[in-house]
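[Meeting: bench + compute handoff]

Bench side (C.D.) handed over the final construct sequence. Compute side (W.E.) agreed to return the predicted structure before the next meeting so the bench team could plan truncations. Sequence as handed over:
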Amino acid sequence: MDYTQNTKIILKVSNLKVSYEDFVAIDGVSLKVRKGEIVGLLGHNGAGKTTLLKTIVGIVPHTEGSIVLGNEQVDHLPVHERARKGIIYVPEGMQVFPFMSVEENLEVAASNNRNTIKQKLNMVFELFPDLKRDIKKMAGHLSGGQQRMLVIARALMTQGKIFLLDDPFLGLTPKVINRLAGAIVDISR
């Protein structure tokens, strides 16, 4: 069976162009992401990877092309509407709320759907057991790897359909990279 022919397309980007004044940052980028796929963007610094992700979520405007989530064109929607529809962006770096506990960081992301918090907490703690152990710890006191796990876990607490992770392994040790990569594979299932 051909996997690509029988799996639903979650995200389709067609002929996307992004310019910053006279500088063309992205020119004619197209991609499709199917349910269950893990897609990586490779390129040197300044190649436009972050710009592409920020354009998909609506932070950076595009000048040409289209962005379709499921069967709905979303490129005209503001960032918060795209997030509500399920496009979740995890920027590079450790974007935790440092003076809130691990638990509070996770709950704030699930605030729109209180009924599923316990179920989602169980899911993220299964993926990231260190976070369960440190549930009452202030997020600012976690290691860099644990903070990265928390940021991704917080994204999973939402009603996301697709998760755009910008440089998820930046600054992490090989051991943490392997654990995080394993969790990403588990999430895609």
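W.E. noted at the follow-up: The chain has two domains: 1-85, 87-161+169-189. C.D. will use this when planning the next construct.
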